[in-house]
């Protein structure tokens, strides 16, 4: 538990001092919103409302890939990754610390992006904020857990920037379909059905446990 | 599968004794040649059965793709399961031979899956009028194909034999978790599927059962042959690399 808190604190403090990861992710997300403005039919039409959740989640996933790549590439400096591997506890706690920090940083980026997205495309209302936070949090748990595991794998490969999305995107299908479905229902009908939430909970549990156990095998000296 | 498991045990035990090791690989090669002969003979029977099978009155000659497509699908799934089993055994026992089995399963599985993804759309265009449909089963198979292509890319982009094996094993096992999760997705969201359900007894027309059975037997034998061959090659390659390293040291 101490290892988890230490790694989480280290990553958050490092990010607070540099802010390079969160700023890059945020600017990327905002640029994606601008690109969507050109891709979508103008105005707050029904089509825009139907397409918006999918597009929002595409922006989230690509921003997460950027952040997760950076989460481990910084550990290569001064061979800090070896230090993490030598932690005298189960490496799963290191995983939880890294995933937790990514979850917090991604959450901040997601909140600002959703706000801008909602204002620019005139989507959603104040009443949607709390359920949307729940959906985004559920989606991000799965995204950050499997993304952290695969980030640790990708960082030790050649072409690591391209390797992470190649490894991660095919595995995100359950997370993405659940999140997009729940967000769409929330925006169009103002309520969240149980089925996609159930799927997200199952997928989160599977990926969290598999990544906690698997991290021991991917972090090496 | 039992034969494969037995062989993996026998091959894995030979590492400390190179002579016995060679003997066991030789035994494995003999098995493979036997399976190869059976595949050749079965292929002849299969070709005759497909040519002489009646032409479907609704779908026409394109229906004959179904003597090819499902057996390829079984091979693809079997390959991916072998990859996951090989990977899990490698993580558990740390024996190279299991990693070699996982590579063999993934490569042969990807080949079978690619052929299945080619034959399926040809049949679909003739029958449904579309090359592709985002049908649950098709989507799941496409995702699995991407997972195992990424698996092979991961292997080629990672340096160090032990690290490559470890990373690939983790990813191979993770990829298999996608199968039940995606079935969950499919059940929840996609409703009725376009893809035909599994064939039940008596669902094939008169004279169509034999070529279908022959296809399944032939492609299963071909699959086993390819996996054994690829496994053998991988073991040989590892041994050659070891000898090279020993030569460089001495």
Can you put this structure into words, describing what you see?
The complex is a heterodimer of chains A (221) and B (250). Chain A is mainly alpha-helical and 221 residues long. Chain A has one domain (2-220). Chain A has helices spanning 2-18, 20-39, 46-73, 80-85, 91-121, 129-154, 160-168, 173-189, 194-218. In chain A, helix 6 crosses helix 7 (160-168). The two termini of chain A are 22 Å apart. The two termini of chain B are 41 Å apart. By secondary structure, chain B is an all-alpha fold. Chain B is built from 7 helices and no strands. Classes of the chains: A mainly alpha (221), B mainly alpha (250). The A-B interface holds A 146, 149-150, 153, 156-159, 163, 166-167, 169-171, 173-174, 177-178, 181, 195-196, 198-199, 202-203, 206-207, 210, 214, 217-218, 220 and B 91, 139, 143-144, 146-147, 150, 153-154, 157-159, 163, 166-167, 169-171, 173-175, 177-178, 181-182, 184-185, 188-189.
Supply the key terms.
heterodimer; A: 221 residues; mainly alpha; 81% helix; B: 250 residues; 7 helices; 78% helix; 0% strand; flat; disordered N terminus
Summarize the structure.
The complex is a heterodimer of chains A (221) and B (250). By secondary structure, chain A is an all-alpha fold.
Q: Please work out how many helical segments of chain B DSSP would assign.
A: 7
What is the overall silhouette of chain A?
Answer: globular
The structure class of chain B reads mainly alpha
- The assigned structural class of chain A equals mainly alpha
Secondary structure elements and their pairing?
The complex is a heterodimer of chains A (221) and B (250).
Chain A: H1 2-18, H2 20-39, H3 46-73, H4 80-85, H5 91-121, H6 129-154, H7 160-168, H8 173-189, H9 194-218
Helix pairs in contact in A: 1-5, 2-3, 2-5, 3-5, 3-6, 3-7, 3-8, 5-6, 5-9, 6-7, 6-8, 6-9, 8-9
Chain B: H1 2-12, H2 18-52, H3 69-93, H4 96-127, H5 136-157, H6 161-189, H7 209-249
Helix pairs in contact in B: 1-2, 2-7, 3-4, 3-6, 3-7, 4-5, 4-7, 5-6
């Amino acid at each position: 538990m101490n290892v988890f808190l230490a790694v989480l604190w280290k990553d958050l403090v490092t990010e607070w001092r540099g802010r390079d990861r969160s700023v890059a992710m945020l600017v990327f997300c905002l640029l994606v919103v601008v690109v969507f403005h050109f891709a979508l039919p103008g105005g707050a039409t029904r089509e825009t409302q139907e397409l918006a959740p999918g597009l929002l989640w595409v922006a989230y996933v690509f921003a997460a890939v950027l952040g997760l790549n950076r989460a481990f590439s910084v550990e290569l400096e001064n061979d800090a990754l070896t230090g993490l591997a030598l932690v005298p506890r189960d490496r799963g706690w290191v995983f939880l610390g890294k995933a937790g920090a990514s979850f917090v940083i991604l959450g901040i980026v997601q909140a600002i992006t959703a706000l801008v997205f909602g204002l620019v495309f005139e989507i959603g209302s104040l009443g949607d904020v709390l359920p949307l936070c729940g959906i985004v949090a559920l989606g991000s748990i799965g995204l950050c857990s499997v993304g952290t595991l695969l980030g640790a794998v990708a960082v030790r490969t050649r072409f690591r920037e391209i390797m992470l999305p190649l490894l991660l995107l095919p595995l995100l299908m359950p997370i993405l379909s659940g999140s997009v479905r729940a967000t769409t229902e929330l925006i169009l009908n103002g309520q969240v059905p149980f089925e996609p939430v159930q799927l997200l909970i199952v997928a989160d549990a599977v990926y969290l446990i598999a990544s906690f156990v698997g991290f021991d095998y991917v972090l090496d000296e | 599968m039992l034969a494969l498991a037995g062989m993996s045990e026998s091959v894995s035990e030979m590492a400390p004794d190179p002579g016995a090791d060679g003997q066991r690989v030789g035994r494995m090669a003999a098995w493979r040649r036997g399976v190869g002969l059976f595949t050749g003979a079965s292929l002849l029977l299969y070709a005759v059965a497909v040519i002489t099978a009646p032409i479907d009155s609704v779908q026409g000659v394109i229906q004959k793709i179904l003597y090819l497509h499902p057996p390829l699908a079984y091979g693809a799934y079997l390959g991916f399961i072998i990859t996951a089993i090989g990977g899990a055994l490698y993580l558990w026992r740390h024996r190279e031979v299991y990693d070699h089995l996982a590579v063999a399963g993934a490569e042969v599985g990807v080949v079978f899956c690619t052929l299945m993804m080619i034959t399926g759309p040809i049949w679909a265009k003739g029958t449904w009028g579309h090359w592709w449909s985002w049908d649950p089963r098709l989507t799941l198979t496409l995702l699995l194909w991407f997972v195992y292509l990424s698996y092979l890319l991961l292997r080629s982009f990672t340096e160090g034999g032990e690290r490559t094996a470890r990373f690939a094993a983790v990813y191979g096992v993770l990829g298999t978790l996608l199968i039940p999760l995606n079935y969950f997705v499919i059940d929840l969201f996609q409703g009725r599927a376009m893809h035909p359900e599994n064939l039940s007894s008596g669902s094939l027309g008169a004279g169509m059962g034999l070529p279908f059975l022959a296809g399944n037997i032939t492609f299963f034998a071909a699959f086993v042959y390819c996996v054994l061959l690829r496994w053998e090659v991988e073991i040989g390659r590892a041994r050659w690399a070891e000898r090279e390293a020993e030569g460089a040291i001495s």
